[in-house]
From TrEMBL:
InterPro entries: Cupin_2, RmlC-like_jellyroll, RmlC_Cupin_sf. Transmembrane segments: none annotated. This is Cupin. Residues 38-102 form the Cupin type-2 domain. It comes from the Archaea.
Length: 128
């Protein structure tokens, strides 16, 4: 058996994102799921690009605020205490609109925790 408590505020934000992203999988010593906490101010997006994953399922749980998720078919508005699930192969771009009143705080999970699995998606031609 094993147990860990992680104070998320002590995890340094990643410096490769527009918004604040704290990678929690490492400090929690998780091996089978990627876990990240995001805080996006108005106008910021969570991913590095509009993308899809070949193998990974993703789940975004909105802790506070409203998350917008653009897909090829529509843009979803995901409110506080709601969850948005994404199947492998499904393009999406999660963001906080520029005209939002407040930041959005999101807990994101991905399984399996694959690295380099994100494929850029161009909504203009529907191709990577």
């Amino acid at each position: 058996m094993g147990y860990r408590v992680v104070d998320c505020e002590t995890v340094e934000p990643s410096d490769d994102r527009d918004c604040e992203m704290r990678r929690l999988s490492g400090p929690a010593e998780l091996e089978n799921v990627a876990l990240n906490r995001f805080r996006a101010e108005p106008g910021q997006e969570l991913p590095l690009a509009y993308h899809y994953h070949e193998e990974q399922e993703e789940v975004f749980y909105v802790l506070s605020g409203t998350l917008s998720v653009e897909t090829p078919e529509e843009t979803y508005e995901v409110g506080e205490n709601c969850l948005f699930a994404v199947d492998p192969g499904s393009p999406q771009r999660a963001y906080n609109p520029a005209d939002a009143d407040d930041a959005v705080n999101v807990l994101a999970l991905g399984a399996p925790p694959v690295s380099g699995d994100a494929v850029p998606y161009d909504p203009e031609d529907g191709e990577e």
